[in-house]
Amino acid sequence: MSEGTCEATLPYIALTRGPSGGIMAGVRDSSERAIRIGVNAHLLSLAESYRSAGISWYIQNLLRHLPEADPALGYTVFLGEKRYPGHPGLELRLSRLPTHRPPARILWEQAIQPRALRREGVDLLHGMALVGPVVTQCPFVVTIHDLSFIRYPQNFHGLKRRYLQAFTRLSVRRARRVIAISENTKRDIVRSYGLEPTKVDMIHYGLDPIFQPLSEEAIGRFRSQKGLPDRFILFVGTLEPRKNVARLIEAYARLPKDRPALILVGGKGWLYDEIFNRVQSLGLDGEVLFAGYVPAEQLPYWYNAADLFVYPS
Question: What are phi and psi for residue 120, nearest 5 degrees?
Fold first, then answer.
């Protein structure tokens, strides 16, 4: 593969390999071979915990729709989640390593992934969560969701923080293109890593059609089943420092005494003891309620039932 291939043809649409071996964009004929897209999906999780939220949900939905974008392309998905059923148009490659554990995932990403890419004949890799392989001949794009590990390093465990800080920097510099999920993230990338803004493409998250207004009858049944208060403020997110939940609880405590309840929906992530301690120290037991992990299909009911949604990340 030549050094300049793929750079002007992302994302993914109408990429083909011609008879001479070069990658081309445009109309295909019978002599052309569709190129193969590799997808690092090792952060995909179907566990009923915080691991199935956030980036995992992004990965699941992207995989669901990728083959529709260009059915003529081949898609090889590398993952460790054995329960993932896949979708038509995807070829799954399961790892034997327990890549739900960070050390195993790091080993796979940097030591095993480059060989897997060669073995599977991958022409272009998408690293869907911040990091690509440092040593590989395969061109890749990488999605950056945020740079909280740089802006708020105290909110991350040491190994995870050091890995993300070092390897994200290397990855965005080696990547052919960088995907940012918001203009704010794009600005952070350009400022933190000194990239040219033209190398960073801003692509918003999509909207799942399950999120829509529900009938009063459906909301009423949900309220009754869950025993919800008449009025409540809703937060949805993993319980961890970078979600700023402790500050939210402090702000809630300053509301007048006739305030609605505050319901926190989300599984426990890491360094979450401060959140529970803050509720107790402020005397908010019974007013701040923890709903725990909620399956994605239930989230529309929570959003519809709430009086107010807050997002203090």
Answer: -85, 0
| pTM given for the model | 0.77
Q: Are 40 and 114 in contact (CB under 8 A)?
A: no
297-311 burial, b at 16+ Cβ within 10 Å, e below that, comes to eebbbbbbbbeeebe
Residue reference for tokens 């909110």: 155
Which string of b and e fits 55-70 if b means at least 16 CB within 10 Å? bbbbbbebbeebbeeb
Per the CB < 8 A criterion, the answer to whether 270 and 51 are in contact is no
User: When comparing pLDDT for 32 and 223, which is higher?
Assistant: 223
Q: 78: closest CA among 106, 109, 39?
A: 39
Classified as helix, coil or strand, 178 is strand
CA dihedral sign of residues 92, 97, 102, 105: negative
Which of 123, 131, 143, 139 lies closest to 201, judged by CA? 143
- Model confidence pLDDT, tens digit, residues 190-240: 999 999 999 999 999 888 888 999 999 999 999 999 999 999 999 998 888
User: What is the number of alpha carbons within 13 Å of residue 161 lying toward its C-beta?
Assistant: 13
- Length in residues, the chain: 313
CA distances from 206 to 23, 50, 210, 227, 307 (A): 28, 20, 12, 32, 24
3-state secondary structure of 168: helix
